[in-house]
Design goal:
The chain is mostly helical and 294 residues long. The chain has a domain of 40 residues. The protein has eleven helices and seven strands. The strands form three sheets. A three-stranded antiparallel β-sheet has the order 1-3-2.
Length: 294
């Protein structure tokens, strides 16, 4: 089955130069970028693609065929992907465990920052666990159960009680998390992507070149994901008044809404499955960032 033809739009020269500078100054690691693309772009379309299309998709990022093959093989060995021969080619798909792990990791990207808070704390006590296990159940019971760690942890819900004296849990926030360095990362992220996104805003709704839309969206989500890994995502009441996390989220949301149709056209024109073109995006895709227009 032939891939759908893309609309003919001239690449924006300003965006082209920005992409070139970014990929020269901070080239992404192949394995990390593939994880971003699989979670952000491929998983909503069923999670399975032919390897040849993935190689083509990653070429504009400066990632060659050998690096793609090596990275995908490593993800398969780690249980994220499973390979299937299709004639002389290979199809790679998310495993059930890989799909679950992607869902957990990427939900944080698309959900808005926590605004309302009932002033309760969930406290997790881990007994005789490895460092890796202690990090794993940080989103509490559901993930802990999925990882088989329920028997090793105690989870309690707590509230500050000033009548008991001592300091409040809220007062411990600056000691427990390095919010200053996370804020620096967010401001650097906004400065890095704000200008190029303005270039897209200056175009009409249907004037976004598909390949550029996909490349910039991928680099945007890739970097946003990196910053989020360090963000404890505390309720707004516990954050500094000038906290830039909400502005970074809004930047991603606005760009996603602005370009998702064009980026999807590039994706569908480049990737295939064993049955031909990718299936349509699942309904959950259109709930990202508070809602996308189909």
């Amino acid at each position: 089955m032939r891939k759908p033809e893309q609309p003919t739009l001239a690449p924006n020269p300003h965006v082209r130069r920005w992409i070139g500078r970014e990929l020269t100054a901070a080239p992404p690691r192949a394995s990390s970028l593939i994880v971003t693309i699989w979670g952000d772009a491929i998983a909503p379309h069923g999670g399975a693609v032919m390897l040849a299309g993935l190689i083509e998709l990653l070429a504009p990022f400066g990632i060659n065929e050998r690096l793609v093959r090596t990275s995908v093989f490593r993800l398969a060995r780690e249980g994220w992907l499973a390979a299937k021969p299709v004639g002389r080619e290979s199809l790679y798909r998310l495993t059930r465990d890989g799909a679950r792990r992607f869902e957990q990791a990427y939900r944080r990207i698309y959900d808005p920052p926590i605004e309302r808070w009932d002033e309760s704390w969930e406290i997790l006590i881990a007994d005789r666990t490895s460092a890796q296990e202690r990090r794993a159940p940080s989103t509490v019971a559901r993930i802990a159960a999925a990882l088989g760690l329920t028997c090793k942890i105690v989870i309690v819900r707590a509230f500050d009680d000033v009548a008991l004296g001592g300091q409040t849990l809220a007062s411990a926030v600056p000691r427990c998390w390095d919010l200053d360095s996370v804020a620096v990362d967010y401001r650097r992220f906004i400065a890095r992507f704000g200008g190029v996104i303005d270039r897209f805003r200056q175009c009409g709704d249907d004037a976004h070149e598909p390949a550029q839309s996909f490349i910039v969206r991928t680099l945007l989500i890739h970097e946003y994901r990196r910053v989020l890994l360090r963000d404890p995502q505390l309720p707004a009441a516990l954050l500094p008044l000038d906290w830039p996390g909400a502005a970074a989220y809004a930047l991603c949301r606005d760009f996603y809404r602005l370009t998702h149709r064009a980026a999807e056209r590039h994706l569908l024109a480049t990737l295939t499955t064993e049955r031909g073109t990718l299936p349509p995006a699942a309904p959950g895709f259109y709930r990202r960032f508070g809602g996308l227009e189909p």
